[in-house]
Amino acid sequence: MNYFSQFWDENREDEYVSWGTSTWLFETNESDVILKQITVYNNEKILKYSTEKLSDKFGSLSDQKLTIDDCDGEVISKEDFYKVW
Fold first, then answer.
1. Sign of dihedral through CA atoms 49, 72, 67, 74?
2. Average pLDDT over all residues of the chain
3. Residues 34 and 25: beta-carbon distance below 8 Å
4. Is residue 25 within 8 Å of 50, Cβ to Cβ?
5. I need a labelling partner for 26 at 20 to 30 A (CA). Which of 6, 18, 33, 54 fits?
6. pLDDT tens-digit profile of 16-47?
7. Distance CA 76, CA 60 (A)
8. How many domains does the chain have?
């Protein structure tokens, strides 16, 4: 498994714009498929998606493959990922 994070310096473009910027955390497999995804917003709202919970009214699990190079992210540990999960 691969674990990495990405800071997103743009606000949402919907009624939740007040949540602010966000940091995204990803767990991907060796084929770069996203298995789990966490979004932590500046207002401390946390969204979590996985194959068990694909979507809700706020967002959804990405259906695109992703590598750390694709998002200019930073490697994080499995432990750090699961502290938030």
1. negative
2. 95
3. no
4. no
5. 18
6. 999 999 999 999 999 999 999 999 999 999 99
7. 22
8. 1
